Amino acid sequence: MGEMLKNRVAVVTGAGNGLGRAEAIAMASQGAKVVVNDLGTSHDGKGASSEAADKVVGQIKKAGGEAVANYDSVASEEGAKNIIHTAIKNYGRLDILINNAGIIRTDVIWDIKTEDWDAMVKTHLYGTFFCARSASMIMKEQGYGRIVCTSSHIGFGFFGQAAYSCVKEGIVGFARTVARDMGKFGTTCNVIRPLAAWRGVVDKVGIMEENKPEDVATLVTYLASEQAGNINGCIFEVFKNRVGIFTEPQPLEQVLCKDGRWTPDELARVMPETLTRGKQREVYPKTLPYIFD
């Protein structure tokens, strides 16, 4: 076992499968004591079971690591508090929070059901907020912490993914500000936009086997370490053997200026040949990352 996270205590939400599972195992292999949180739902947030979290805990212990299971829902304020309290109760501290728990329900905008929208917002946005708020109180007092939040390339906009796009971009804005709130207290908050297979998806394009959750877990483990103390408010991508960082903030591509205020007629004349040249109504993704996150 490695020692990058020796004596550190980590909470990983949604750690029963996929990215969360890989992250929990990777951090335990580097010496962290891990709270493996998973409600045990299907990928669309239905049902509940302790089996997924228990299996990951068993795997970590079998490899010589330390872990304990938690089955609370991040979407509940009380549940999130219990998740964080599990770390304190069992290990006496909390150093790392990996906000990974999520569900996915897809539909084109005119067919999105209110209950599906609410479930996505509660799990992703409320869940990330509830857990980060509880964890930040502890990290602020101890003067140390690492928070990693999980976004997605779907946030850039993809057909039939309005709810998922919304919550994943909301997480980015949230994390940027948490990074600023917590930086002076020795705590960092960063974001990953992973490209990796999520459970419940059938590989129809023959490339999922090349994009493993374990590839993402390597970066997350590093971001959770003391060595990454200077990295704060950043957004990363992992794709196979490639680790990238996004430009912050996004620069403006082009600007129109004139003396005085623009009129609508002027913009209608100038913009088609400048700012919006080549734009079209239909927007299609260049790739299909929604298959992987």
Describe the fold and architecture.
Strand 1, helix 1 and strand 2 (33-37) form a beta-alpha-beta unit. The model is unreliable at 202-207 and 286-293 (pLDDT under 50). The protein has an 8-stranded mixed beta sheet, sandwiched between helices. The protein is of the alpha/beta class. The protein is built from 7 helices and 8 strands.
First-residue to last-residue Cα separation: 28 Å
Bin the helical content: 25-40%
Shape: globular
String of helices and strands: EHEHEHEHEHEHEEH
How would you describe this structure in keywords?
alpha/beta, single chain, 14% strand, 293 residues
Helices and strands in order, then pairings?
Layout: E1 9-12, H1 18-28, E2 33-37, H2 51-62, E3 66-70, H3 77-91, E4 96-99, H4 114-142, E5 145-150, H5 162-182, E6 187-194, H6 213-223, E7 235-239, E8 242-245, H7 264-270
Parallel strand pairs: 1-2, 1-4, 2-3, 4-5, 5-6, 6-7
Antiparallel strand pairs: 7-8
Helix pairs in contact: 1-6, 3-4, 4-5
Task: Please give a quick description of this structure.
With 293 residues, the protein is an alpha/beta fold. α1 (18-28) crosses α6 and α3 runs parallel beside α4.
